[in-house]
């Protein structure tokens, strides 16, 4: 029911939205909940477990009941709090967790079974038979329970993440927060003020408070304008969701939830990470419901919520409203309602000193199937019925201590206030003002807001300021009587604590009876506080019941752990931008586009994309790969190898560094020559391998594998910064500066000579030579190295010319019966030659294992040398061998090796296959693998079994080098 | 003279305009890395600083490491130098909303009183490593690895679009 002349809604801007298809009239400034209540609709949802009809309990983000789905189709947002969602013209709102309709929900049958569905029901009931849990019970339970449904499909909404920094973060824009922000900005601080609502004011918007003779909301509006003008960054619709290490806070900004037809680029939410030197928590307090029988009917709501609907939205949630309160706040609701002309049916207050006019008693039951129609009161005069369609309830207030507890602190029980208050210094750099600190008056909020900000600024060294405290028309100090009012809690008269998860007083008592007396155990046994509202309304009530049931005080019982986030944060907001092309950076080689143009599939190698193969008409990958590998052995092939890590090493101690990180010696390498090197970790296992070229007396260029480029760079930084900072050496990655192309095959020299100005002969560029050359007019580098076993070169030019060089070389190669080759052929060629990659050097193998133990120089020290000499790493090892199929079968990487007749058991496992391919040179399937004492077993026949792919074949153990074992082809 | 055609991965994708921010590339004559060895006559600017020297602008880019924008200097005694001209793509972001756009992608404190014109920093740009250089109050140069230029532009454009769309609110 709308009340004339009340509320901050814009009556000049009427609008229409739909609820379950029914058109609803509203005004700009309404929430879904306020608009529905204005139209006499109290029933807004069904509860999680019993499918009980529910209406809004609150008018804020703590709402447990009024959860709805907004929007349609893939853009639907389930579990939206009707109390938070602002309405706009054309908004679609649907109820959830009910079928076929909110009013006639089939699953409400669950409610009849409530006597059997109490705490621990699932644990006790669905034990047998074991298999039925997964197949029957769980699917059925999951279908019956639950809140809104995800729309399915990819999320079409844009989302955003952002960083912010400030001197002072003020959490909450009520009277305390406004004064804190005002004080901080006056003192010269850089201030961010975040508030959940779309406008600042906090409770000033929802109460009839006067400040300095003005309406509270008007004062807040003026303050907001002033703060904005002074440079305070005001984040409205923004909830600070968590406090983290180092003064970092998470915050969720609802950017476009309130917008009809948002711009397609507009984010729905923005997840902020705010680094603040100081934080003033002015998040206010949350009112407590009272646990009395059947307290969950639509129409029962918090007394503060009734005032909020009245003052902010001009709505009376009923025609005849009763008030049940254990503190003075409830009486304020009665006064405000009367003043607005709403009939107050009764005021019930159980306290001995209940004000005159109130009934000294308790509400012991309620009536009304889909909404409240009446209540039963027990007082000195016995039981009596009172007809009413709304009941305002107040059980006192809980300061919003959540953020103060996010780093492990627990709040402190204040017996005088009968509530938990923040513990001092709970979060470094955070201090608490206003109701969040247990100061429940407006003048107290204004004053502590200023004082707390002043103290925070003193710590920051801000300038001293004088800030006037405005005068608030004072409400009397609140008296909060001890907590919950309880009445017999029977199956027919259940007293709800946790509305969202349907946990009653009886459930908590049951938990205590079954010895789940720790508050953390009680929580998990009953699921109290584990719903999307995280028990904001119910935690303190539930532990009070537990305290009573276990005969302990509330302070002894303690609270459960408060964890971020304070309100639900969509995963999509936290991972904003992380889908599609934003998932990870794509590293593209210079010839990426011409390769794609040739139809090459680009395969991910770490972040890089490299060509798999270059298919000709009608070829599948295997045909293309086989053709390319044979082409390299026959004529010439061109492959991009730019992704290999290239590290420039200069300085008088460059050689010392290389000798220290490589197992073999580089100080003896002549200028203009390249050497293969092996690098160990401290623990003696192989880290990486590659070639290093000596370009000058104090200048080397190291090549790493693509996969380990970053790891090797980090390793070199560690060595030069920590182990030998005295060495005079400079290291820098030049990977990105050079495009490098491998030219391999018997005709490689002819091809290379056609692009290089200088003579390329056996004398000028023998095997393992390098030098600076001119390539098609561009200064570049030439290395005579081979990863294919063929006569081969690597040609390097500045990256800008990479695509052109690759295309040019490919065209020339094609004129010579050659062409491009991809990663698959490159892999085949190196397997044929027994060269290792990270398929072999996985981090668990040693130089001994891969047959390179002799590369660990005896004449010098190197990283990992001593560790590699440990006996366990030198005897009875799985050693690298070559493998060849002998029965026409195919080897597969990952398969295991067994004796021909031994049983296929883990304990008879002899080794495993690391790399496998079809060898065009040998005409059969070959591979590399590790075999227990393998080098002594050459010629042996074994069974290869791939349990995963269900593939088997017989293999012969060979030396790792399958083709050209003496290496003549590369040297020629 | 060369027969090879130079290609820049950013040139097909830029410039871009969204809202009051523009993204383009900046191609200096050359980028040369300088790392002084013991006894060198020059020193790298202090962390986060840039200095006009050696006929160009030398930007701090890491521990004992600077990037010289401008003509490649003759060999400097006791300074390890490499040509990094092709290693980096420099993206230039300019306009009144430049700090807002970058705040979507980097945790750096971009407060102009702290990150003043002329300052540099190494930090994250989305998921990648970048060198940030504030040229002027509303002009940032963002250095990213050449191979990642496409991803960097994608991420920056997304941030630009999101902020431009906020102006419709």
From TrEMBL, chain A:
Keywords for the protein's UniProt record, in alphabetical order: Oxidoreductase
Keyword Oxidoreductase belongs to the record = yes
Segments forming domain SoxA A3:
493-577
The Aminomethyltransferase C-terminal domain extends over 908-964
- Tell me which Gene3D superfamilies the record gives: 2Fe-2S iron-sulphur cluster binding domain, sarcosine oxidase, alpha subunit, N-terminal domain, FAD/NAD(P)-binding domain, Probable tRNA modification gtpase trme, domain 1
Q: What residues does the GCVT N-terminal domain cover?
A: 596-860
Q: Which InterPro entries match?
A: 2Fe-2S-bd_N (IPR042204), FAD/NAD-bd_sf (IPR036188), GcvT/YgfZ/DmdA (IPR028896), GcvT/YgfZ_C (IPR029043), GcvT_C (IPR013977), GCVT_N (IPR006222), Sarcosine_oxidase_asu (IPR006277), SoxA_A3 (IPR041117)
Q: Is Glycosyltransferase among this UniProt entry's keywords? A: no
Pfam families per UniProt: FAD_oxidored, Fer2_4, GCV_T, GCV_T_C, SO_alpha_A3
Please report which protein family the annotation says this sequence is part of.
Belongs to the GcvT family.
The name on file for this protein is Sarcosine oxidase subunit alpha
**Native source species:** Jannaschia pagri
From TrEMBL, chain B:
Which InterPro entries does this one have?
TrmE/GcvT-like
Protein name in the entry: Sarcosine oxidase subunit gamma
- What organism does the UniProt record list as the source? Jannaschia pagri
Q: What are the leading ranks of the lineage? A: Bacteria, Pseudomonadati, Pseudomonadota, Alphaproteobacteria, Rhodobacterales
